[in-house]
Structure formats: structure tokens, C-alpha cells
Amino acid sequence: MRSCRAVSVLVSQGLDKKLSLRERCSVWLHVMMCTRCRNFQTQSQFIRKAARRYTDDLQSRLGKKS
Ligand SMILES: [Zn+2]
């Protein structure tokens, strides 16, 4: 089993690029058992989504102005 540190790195990478099946499996297996990493994954995905929504909103506003 991978360490929490290794899993959090994979979780962060997974936000920006597609992980390999093997990487996704190890993350999945780890978060099944580790609440801390599960919370980290949920929070990261939430923040990423919120940030994207904010940028999209900002871009559409700027687009309307120009
Ligand atoms: Zn963990």
C-alpha cells in the first residue's frame, strides 16, 4: 500500500492530468481505507471545481465587457 504522502501527490496530479489505471487503483484502494486521504481528495476536487467555475465566470464577464 502506498503512503499517504504518495497518495496525496497522485490525487493532486489527477486534478491536472489523467492518471494511469494502476495509479487510479492505488489511490482508490488507499482512500477506501484512509479517511484523511479521502477528505483530502474530496476537498481538492471541490476546490478545483470551485476555482474552475470562478475562472469561467470571470472570463465570461470579461468577454461581455470587451
Ligand atoms: Zn492516507
List the helices and strands and how they pair.
Elements: H1 4-16, H2 21-33, H3 35-65
Helix pairs in contact: 1-2, 1-3, 2-3
The protein binds zinc ion.
Zinc ion (ZN) binds at residues 4, 7, 30, 34, 36-37.
Core attributes:
binds zinc ion; mainly alpha; 66 residues
Tally of separate domains: 1
Q: Main β-sheet: number of strands, strand sense, barrel status?
A: none
- What's the helix-strand series? HHH
Binned strand content: under 5%
Q: What's the overall average pLDDT, rounded?
A: 93
Tell me which ligands are bound.
zinc ion
Low-confidence stretches: none
Count of helical regions = 3
The helicity comes to over 70%
Q: What is the 3D form?
A: elongated
User: For the CA atoms, what is the radius of gyration?
Assistant: 15 Å
Give your account of this protein's structure.
This protein has 66 residues and is mainly α. It has one domain (4-65). The chain contains 3 helices and no strands. The chain has helices at residues 4-16, 21-33, 35-65. It starts with a helix and ends with a helix. 9% of the residues are buried. The model has no long low-confidence stretch (mean pLDDT 93). Residues 4, 7, 30, 34, 36-37 line the site of zinc ion.
